[in-house]
Amino acid sequence: KMANPAKLMDNEVLMAFASYATIILSKMMFMSIATAFFRVTKKVFANPEDCESFGKGENVKKFLRTDESVERVRRAHLNDLENIVPFLGIGLLYSLSGPDLSTALLHFRIFVGSRFYHTMAYLLPLPQPNRGLAFFVGYGVTLSMAYSLLRNRFYL
């Protein structure tokens, strides 16, 4: 039996998930822009063709380098990709499984908060274990939703 799209819009958990997914995806998109901003303002590029507007020939080579601030933003963005993608997939399935709204909101809010805190801990930088704890909190939320799905809704 096919799901009725109009009924899906009535699913409060799914709508909450859509809201938090939009927030976290927007944050992840911002990290792409932040990486590009740092690359341009620091004149630090990974590819020769990206350097050509700053010089030609041998002059280009001085812009092909790494910079710690650029690398921090880039690594924070990569960490987002590693964590947000699983959250989106598992969170969608979890949202459609009929969880309690307050429990689902707790999962979504903690995950989003942990990802924002993780980014702040990466970029400022805050001393460890700040970043590590933020990572494991978000990862734990995704595992909690996966466990709930496997325990309550899937037929294994």
Automatic annotation (TrEMBL):
UniProt lists the family membership as follows: Belongs to the MAPEG family.
* UniProt key word Transmembrane helix: yes
Asked whether the keyword Magnesium is assigned, the reply is no
Q: State the species of origin.
A: Cavia porcellus (Guinea pig)
| PANTHER family (UniProt xref) | MICROSOMAL GLUTATHIONE S-TRANSFERASE 1
Bilayer-crossing residues are 17-38, 84-112, 132-150
Q: Which reaction does it catalyse?
A: RX + glutathione = an S-substituted glutathione + a halide anion + H(+)
How does this protein sit in the membrane?
Multi-pass membrane protein
Q: Which GO terms describe its cellular component?
A: endoplasmic reticulum membrane; mitochondrial outer membrane
Q: What is its EC number?
A: 2.5.1.18
What name does this protein carry? Microsomal glutathione S-transferase 1
Where it sits in the cell: the answer is: Endoplasmic reticulum membrane; Mitochondrion outer membrane
A Pfam family assignment: MAPEG
Annotated Gene Ontology MF terms? glutathione peroxidase activity; glutathione transferase activity
Query: Gene encoding it?
Result: MGST1
Q: How does it assemble?
A: Homotrimer; The trimer binds only one molecule of glutathione.
Keyword terms of this UniProt record: Acetylation, Endoplasmic reticulum, Membrane, Mitochondrion, Mitochondrion outer membrane, Transferase, Transmembrane, Transmembrane helix
| Reported function | Conjugation of reduced glutathione to a wide number of exogenous and endogenous hydrophobic electrophiles.
Q: Which InterPro entries match?
A: MAPEG-like_dom_sf, Membr-assoc_MAPEG, MGST1-like
Its BP terms in the Gene Ontology are: cellular response to lipid hydroperoxide; glutathione transport
